[in-house]
Design brief:
two-stranded antiparallel sheet, alpha/beta, 10 strands
Length: 276
Amino acid sequence: MKKDQLPPGRRSMFRIAACLGAAAVGGLLAGEQAETPGRGPAAGGPQAAAAPPPKAASYRLRPLAAYAAPALRRARPPVRERPFLEVPDMGRAMVLTFDDGPDPRYTPDILAILREYGVRAMFFVCGEMATGNRDLLREMADDGHVVGNHTWSHPLVPKLPPSRIRDQLGRTSEVIEKSLGEAPLWYRAPYGAWNKHSFEIGAELGMEPLGWTLDTLDWTRPGTSTIVRRVLRGAAPGVVVLSHDAGGNRSQSVAALRRYLPELLYDGYRITVPRR
């Protein structure tokens, strides 16, 4: 064997690494259109391919230890121009999302309902809420839910300079990573108000932007029956539903979930989370 040739075992490891890197999963979400504060989302737009899931800020192969397979890290997602609004190509599936928590008054009840029906959801958490409720973050992760980044203090992002946006997203990702062992893969701008800097910084932190298709407007406290009616009337394959588990009195949101979730399942919808 020549000096510059790798032993057969190590060559195999590098071949495995190359194959794994080339097998990254492509487009998951579609529909891109930013929303304005105080208004519901506008669904539609061209489909956009989601990038392979990053796990942290650095994406390099770690040094080989003996002949052990290297630990692979995925590439950063591309910088988007609009958030994803729906989940295509997943059959009769919908995604339930909850913003602004975790709140010990309402989040445990939402988790209990989801657990009762064996479904997974997405929780976009604010850092200032998450830092004092890390046990709820761990409960979300233990139940298979996706924990996303919703900034630190729920500001209007386009009003902030890039340094503040980075601080809002970075601090929240740090809390999530320290609590769960991995950084979040998704983020959502408060009020659905995005800008170029937020897309760039989110991608740098390894996150994809997710908006919503159906706004329950539960934050206005319109009544449990109204929230239920909005969800059932707006239900359709690929729909992403926006609700809240914090930010005010969310008892109507909890009661509505208890009513519309079994109805969705009875109608044949699969409640799931997007792959990354």
